[in-house]
Amino acid sequence: MPPATGGGLAESELRPRRGRCGPQAARAAGRDVAAEAVARSPKRPAWGSRRFEAVGWWALLALVTLLSFATRFHRLDEPPHICWDETHFGKMGSYYINRTFFFDVHPPLGKMLIGLAGYLSGYDGTFLFQKPGDKYEHHSYMGMRGFCAFLGSWLVPFAYLTVLDLSKSLSAALLTAALLTFDTGCLTLSQYILLDPILMFFIMAAMLSMVKYNSCADRPFSAPWWFWLSLTGVSLAGALGVKFVGLFIILQVGLNTIADLWYLFGDLSLSLVTVGKHLTARVLCLIVLPLALYTATFAVHFMVLSKSGPGDGFFSSAFQARLSGNNLHNASIPEHLAYGSVITVKNLRMAIGYLHSHRHLYPEGIGARQQQVTTYLHKDYNNLWIIKKHNTNSDPLDPSFPVEFVRHGDIIRLEHKETSRNLHSHYHEAPMTRKHYQVTGYGINGTGDSNDFWRIEVVNRKFGNRIKVLRSRIRFIHLVTGCVLGSSGKVLPKWGWEQLEVTCTPYLKETLNSIWNVEDHINPKLPNISLDVLQPSFPEILLESHMVMIRGNSGLKPKDNEFTSKPWHWPINYQGLRFSGVNDTDFRVYLLGNPVVWWLNLLSIALYLLSGSIIAVAMQRGARLPAEVAGLSQVLLRGGGQVLLGWTLHYFPFFLMGRVLYFHHYFPAMLFSSMLTGILWDTLLRLCAWGLASWPLARGIHVAGILSLLLGTAYSFYLFHPLAYGMVGPLAQDPQSPMAGLRWLDSWDF
Amino acid sequence: MWGFLKRPVVVTADINLSLVALTGMGLLSRLWRLTYPRAVVFDEVYYGQYISFYMKQIFFLDDSGPPFGHMVLALGGGFDGNFLWNRIGAEYSSNVPVWSLRLLPALAGALSVPMAYQIVLELHFSHCAAMGAALLMLIENALITQSRLMLLESVLIFFNLLAVLSYLKFFNCQKHSPFSLSWWFWLTLTGVACSCAVGIKYMGVFTYVLVLGVAAVHAWHLLGDQTLSNVGADVQCCMRPACMGQMQMSQGVCVFCHLLARAVALLVIPVVLYLLFFYVHLILVFRSGPHDQIMSSAFQASLEGGLARITQGQPLEVAFGSQVTLRNVFGKPVPCWLHSHQDTYPMIYENGRGSSHQQQVTCYPFKDVNNWWIVKDPRRHQLVVSSPPRPVRHGDMVQLVHGMTTRSLNTHDVAAPLSPHSQEVSCYIDYNISMPAQNLWRLEIVNRGSDTDVWKTILSEVRFVHVNTSAVLKLSGAHLPDWGYRQLEIVGEKLSRGYHGSTVWNVEEHRYGASQEQRERERELHSPAQVDVSRNLSFMARFSELQWRMLALRSDDSEHKYSSSPLEWVTLDTNIAYWLHPRTSAQIHLLGNIVIWVSGSLALAIYALLSLWYLLRRRRNVHDLPQDAWLRWVLAGALCAGGWAVNYLPFFLMEKTLFLYHYLPALTFQILLLPVVLQHISDHLCRSQLQRSIFSALVVAWYSSACHVSNTLRPLTYGDKSLSPHELKALRWKDSWDILIRKH
Fold it and tell me: What is the C-alpha to C-alpha distance for residues A52 and A649, in angstroms, rounded to an integer?
């Protein structure tokens, strides 16, 4: 009786253990089952000609690389205007060159590299990158495009080497390389100033070095082993540093490492000390090293971007103090809040702004007809409030009174400086959020009623502490109703000047909407301190920028009634993305996968699942497979399984994401899918050839199959290449157009 | 066969008295004073309205779960449905049978107690451990509160436990008597219980997935069992009913039969049952009601009353000259009809952009005479249906003429008021400036069978593609400002990528226009339509639409005073006040037995750590446990710890408003795990008899403390005793607990 759960599966033999390092692999001894399969393959030359074989090996690799570079760099300069997201990433490259601070939802490495490429190629950062379609004119943009195309070109050789290592079959690797070289989608995506070629470069580099280091497993702690292991770590850091999609490849490497360690741990010939060494090496190379590099990119990012720019408002007041040009930079204000201080109060949630009031009343029918209180994103005199004691109305700035600091838990009154009305709340429903209470300005010259009293509290601090400017996170709790001052983030109608709604929420949940900090602080009786003391430390900056990025990412929500790309559209190549041009006179580039390649990939996934499960069931039933078939099934299950895992990890998480999705998000998954296709067809054709061995032409089946696949993809590329290299003339709906017969799906509009 | 003639008939009853006692105590704790309080408690206000809908057989749509749950609650009904469920705390009128409505959830809660006992026993743990699990279920305050009201969690938990229990029974049968009668019974029951659980609440899917997963692993091991034949010659054997239940034949049964039986019971039966729930639901609620508007016109027309009354007798095929109302298929943000009125777009918008100053076209969410449009043949002038009528087909060119103003639907290269990237849609007024009418539209039937299909009322979903600019008529979803009376904006979308509901329209009301004269036509438009065609949607079409709308319906995330986050559940940092007596301070809270919650989480942590330790040791070939104990430990963990994980962790990914009661299914699995861990510690980790005795004493002490806590919290569970403010304050053990104290 086999064990009920656990244990049994892990000990199965589906382990990618054996193999040799690097190019020698193909020359490995015949003991290896996988290599044995290759040994009998028709492509395999005789033993005597090792030298010739090595030359051939390198020549093929060179050919693949050359072809990849040639296709990617062909007509790279066209169109000479901004295409699609170049407007963002080119602009961000310029920001690095100009050293102005900006905000983006992706980590900085990709844009930093683009900026560096531009800088080295002589681009001066003066082009505005305003909107797609703007001409570059005399500005040098080829450096940035060339850099992206350079990285994008490496995808093909990387995939080639990965498949070669996984399947030990040149034909599988060639097929994969052809699929990727001739895919119009990969080609288009590599030709422009985008993050995707950089991201995919790191993903594939990580995959390749992981596979390489797996095949070095029989020589642990040797130089190549260390090299590939640390290279994996570096690539992981790179992938994560470009986009958070890099997390998926990290997950894949992580799963692979866990399985690997589990295997080593079960190897009783290894002492626990050796296993410990293995563990330490992986922790060092796959956790510590990437983390250090990733942090370093952020350090560089913050060092380079030292000037105030368009991204300031997304960050907290303390953060802004470190940007030169920002009005908080080098400012000096009193550190602790005291009665009589004039302050501005900023909401901690991104893009909400400052507590604001103005001489306009809430309109008839919306709560009480009292003065409006809103939040406002821009600096304005109406953002100023005076903090006063709740029970006295004397002027605390009178020099005869001693300075009295505001402390956590004090009951205060906030008086609007311009209109002398008090911040007030009562049991009327708020204008937009019906479950909350309305907040108004009330009273004349500071005299109101008990609904003007608020308790000021510092989040997570002890009672009695003083309140620090910028650093303290404070809440205002309404004394009578017990509700908390917050902003719902909803835009008020025209009567509220489209500022944001301020409410008093009865739900005492700690959300950022109800937490504020004091930004400006004027009090002549207090000594000013330089804000530099308050500057956040590097870990704080790192944490904050991540919070802002994550919030920005989840804030990219699709609107109702808008066409959005759905993950299920992607593998079937349902619709593309317009990179440039709309009308028939425009130079049009359309991001769309080569349908022959993509539909072949889709078919291959289905075929793989089918054949894989047949083989797995057969093995579980204890079927005795001939040596050759066993070898091929090992390739299919181990090599194919790893690649399939990659595809799964890079595709299915998108179904769970709430943010806006685009077609180009599928491309990392598509790389894995193409590798799977290469492995699958090669193996299936070999199995076919083996099954029909009695037939005289059996060996030819494999060669003919691979050749026809190669030629088929090449021909389809010839048909579809105008999608990537650009087309002018009538649209494909028009029967006159040369592309007319190629609009195979109604949803493609090129 | 005639054996009973030869031997005397003997009935031997095997009664497990502890099981009977447990059931009795369970019933007592759940049914005691069931009708108290005779007032609406918390979510009863929500489920109650659906019970009323069932009683009145009115169609409704609820996104919280499939209809089986509501049906189970309504089963206890038997009243006329006349009660206004609008306020928590409202006194029930005398026509509401409170006892019978609350009976089914209470019974489900009571039966969970003996089932916990059975499950632990079937996991091959001792009678003592099994008793422990059942007694813990018995005194868990949160479970008691939740089962004594018209709420669904206790029923869900009942079916979850039933699914696990019957799977275990089936699995234990598998070893000695596969394909016996009881084997089939338990296997089928597993499938049935799973689909019932899913039918109660979508949450039931989690347990279903768990059972499927465990079954798949077991089936995989079965595949590896080389003593079973392949598809082979024994196929006929297992197909013959005679061999069922015969042990000697079991060796010959093929693997294929095993897999097939599992697939049928665990995949086919649940799907069929799930469809059956909807079938019964749609048969029961056949009258139109307040939720009609959300559904498509075709669906509404299949209900009795409502739209069916209006559309009954409309001509089916739209012809040139037909008068129609056009409803947007997407129905978001509100269902609405294509509309126009005398007013024009303002010359200059507030942001300074200009408009064409032509007649507004909007989407209007109410029935109105201005929603009528006439389908006109561009080549002819008349606005009446010729005889015989010439039906409009896919690909035909049409003009849409607004019935009350006789202006035709037009779009041109002017930015729309709120969506400047799209084209403005207007009804054309000839100002005699160089802006010609562009009012030709090509009709595309989206759900056509062939390219020559006729445009049908209600059934056809159509798009209007503008001939000059190839823009598509679309509902943008934005509300126009005051000049547009806050109606919805209609635009011409130029970049139409594929199918989207907001560009698709269907004819709802329809009649053949007969009067050429404008005055007469206006009168005609004001009068209701008639003539008769029956159109019935098939069950599958209605099911798929209903299911789709239920899943797509998203109530805007309303914050709630008692909503909580999953992290707060494990340590019971939150509670929900369910009910407060109108005069005294007697109150009911959803508040768990904190001793059980904390020790459950502890047991889980211990289980995880111990398992990791054992796994690592086994990997190094050190076997601490004998093989059978190890298998028992793994299976118990897979079901109990796994059950907790699948019922808890997915909530972290959910964006909807969450409440403490969502944690209860996970909690029951934790309670099942507790005695398992305790017995394991006593059996395998206590080395001497002395240690074992000390451990037992500790367990007894711990259990008494749990009992004590349960008893202390009892007034908040049953709400039967009014406590003084002082006593209430003493019960507020955590600052985050919200216990209601009256201010006098």
Answer: 40
